[in-house]
Amino acid sequence: MHNIKVSIYESCVHPDTSSSLSSVWVRIHGIPTKAKKEKYIKLISQAIGKFVCVDESSLGGQGPMRVMILYPDPSKIDCTLPTLYFGSVGKMLTLELERDQAGGGHSPAPDPPADQRDPQGGRLIQ
Fold first, then answer.
1. Which residue ranges form the domains of the chain, and what is each CATH number?
2. What is the pLDDT of residues 44-63, one digit of tens each?
3. Is the pTM of this model over 0.70?
4. Which residues 6+ apart lie within 8 Å of 11 measured at CB?
5. Fewer CB atoms inside 10 Å of the end CB: C or N, the chain?
6. Contact assessment for residue 51 and residue 44, using Cβ atoms and an 8 Å cutoff
């Protein structure tokens, strides 16, 4: 009568799951040049979400860091973190969710290392 079609499949989510994480690329502005090392970026990323990988081309230079993280609600990423201290100097880091990379003139996300790919879904894992 209403041309409604329904498909029912067995759930692939554990019944106790309350939320899921999405992998997103984030730019972190304000990191001092001396702290642009992967081990420090991993620590900074813990204040945001779950670290997946860093765009190694953003480790050098003055620009923002590009980091892939797992985050529950990417629409809430654009923000400023509480003050983080690098030695005795406090910095307020700004986060920016990468939106349309092709349309915004940004370089595309680098290919992840093969050992960080999920063999079933192709998504990055850590």
1. 22-116 (3.30.70)
2. 888 888 999 999 888 877 88
3. no
4. none
5. N
6. no
